[in-house]
């Protein structure tokens, strides 16, 4: 407890430092980079983006691992530091097991991201707010472990958020309507407060009818 109190006090006294953590996919990384640049321009605060090693290597192919650990500053002034998700060479659906991947992302990712936050603190650049994208809910627990507040950065349309809410809550019949559709993409489905939709309009993973569906594993990341 005393250690956390000290971390909270240090964070309160520190200059603002945003750590934006993103899933290693282009559809997540691009919005995060835009957010990071806007935060930098609007606040003048230090902004660090952290994604998995596999994505970091594609973004900055000239960086070796030692240099990457110290951070890469891009032309806009945003810093980039990787964390490891246990799949540093990348995840290949044709080769790797989804279940193992999900467990490793959380297990290894939690440990290595915690190390990133600690390293930044020890270097005199303590993180004052952690922002994370979809599929990385475990990041909030890592931030709390360091006494740092965390916030989700929603990178999809509000309609998609509504679809997730009603599907996972399971009280509006949306999940049952999807199951009853039996995979028919033209089947109608109603979401409270939204115009009539069809199954094909919904996110792929919530309409998956088989565990073998290539997107079925995504539901386990929520």
UniProtKB/TrEMBL annotation:
Highest taxon in the source lineage: Eukaryota
Gene3D superfamilies found in the cross-reference section: Glycogen Phosphorylase B
PANTHER family: GLUCOSYL/GLUCURONOSYL TRANSFERASES (PTHR11926), GLYCOSYLTRANSFERASE (PTHR11926:SF1534)
Family that this chain belongs to: Belongs to the UDP-glycosyltransferase family.
Protein name, entry field: Uncharacterized protein
Higher taxonomy: Eukaryota, Viridiplantae, Streptophyta, Embryophyta, Tracheophyta
């Amino acid at each position: 407890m005393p250690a956390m109190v000290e971390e909270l006090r240090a964070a309160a006294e520190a200059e603002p430092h945003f750590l934006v953590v993103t899933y290693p996919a282009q559809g997540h990384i691009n919005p995060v980079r835009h957010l990071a640049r806007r935060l930098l321009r609007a606040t003048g605060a230090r902004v660090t983006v952290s994604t998995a090693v596999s994505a970091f290597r594609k973004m900055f192919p000239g960086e070796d691992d030692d240099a990457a650990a110290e951070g890469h500053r891009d032309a806009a002034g945003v810093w980039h530091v990787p964390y490891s998700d246990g799949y540093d060479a990348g995840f290949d659906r044709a080769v790797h097991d989804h279940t193992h991947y999900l467990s490793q992302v959380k297990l290894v990712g939690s440990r290595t991201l915690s190390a990133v936050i600690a390293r930044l603190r020890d270097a005199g650049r303590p993180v004052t707010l952690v922002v994370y994208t979809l599929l990385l809910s475990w990041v909030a627990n890592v931030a709390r472990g360091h006494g740092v507040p965390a916030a989700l950065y929603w990178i999809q349309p509000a309609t998609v958020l509504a679809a997730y809410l009603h599907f996972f809550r399971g009280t509006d019949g949306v999940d049952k309507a999807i199951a009853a559709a039996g995979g028919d993409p033209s089947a109608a489905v109603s979401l409270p407060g939204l115009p009539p939709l069809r199954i094909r309009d919904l996110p792929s993973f919530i309409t998956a009818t088989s565990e073998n569906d290539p997107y079925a594993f995504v539901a386990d990341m929520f």
